[in-house]
Predict the 3D structure of the following.
Amino acid sequence: MLTFVKAKSGDLLQTWQSLDIDFNRGPASPESGADLANSGHRHSPVRLVPVLYKNCRAAMGWGIFSNSPSSDERLIDAINEGRADIVQSLLAAGANANGKDDEGFPALVAAAALGHVEIVRLLVSAGADSNAKESGAGVTPLIMAAREGYAEIVRVLLGAGANPNAPRSDGWTPLMAAADYQQVAVVSQLLKVGANPNAKMASGKTALHHVSHHGDADLAKQLLAAGSNPNASDQTGNTSLMTAAAYGHVNVVIILLAAGANPNATNHSGETALMLASGNGRSSVVRQLLKSNADIHAASPKGHTALWVGAWKGHREVVQALLEAGANPDAKDDVGLTPEHAAMAEGHRDVVQVLHNARRR
């Protein structure tokens, strides 16, 4: 790994860092407390981030390399700076196109991550392995280029034999990377060369799960047209429809339902898409699911209906929509609590009043 040494203090400045992408908290679940995002929806890919150090030595007194750099270090350093001329000279002098830094990042992974298309071409021409993986999470050049939306680098790598289905160690494929980061052009590229739209991560997530999380209707259509299974479930039993419903993406919900998504499927906690939409206050999704024959009376193993969950969370508009559609305000859970009791316990007075009025009719 490339480092700079500050002559006076001995502090180190890392040129490359491995960072995690922040998890977004997912929807509330009355059954398990789990959320869709933290159950593996958006796994944090290893990301190479260059630390800007132009003029660093002049301004701060940094000297480059505490020891004489190896040819691999010089090559990675040139890639980091985007110096195609130096890369070309080093390769001509015998530098290893498959060289790695001391943390196991291959030169081609670094070039692809930074979007240096000319350097990618140089490395590929010099024999760099287009399917090389870094030694940690198993990131490939294609995964990095796909995630960042570098369509030309994706084209070069595919032309050099990169496998469009080669996953990261957790199963995150180039297609998932492009879908997760909403890179529409790259998704199209990868599907055209045989990327599997139904590949699953270790968590059971598919590319369609990622798209449903973000609410990208165009990508959802693209994946479904390529054969994505709208009823595929992850390890917690959540389908893409449940994901889209929980996050309130009504346009994606409509697309998934039209493609055959089952509105009454349950996850491992016994929750339906309607329950998840209700618990997260997604009134427009609730209405759409009801139009598509979602079972308004379905209950989880604990006896929680969509109305019970909506009342418990204090979502008045959802409660009203469910009552108008015929939800039973007197339905009790496994300990005898009605939706009104649940709303009262949480201090949702406006919801209590709505339910009380409905029971008096």
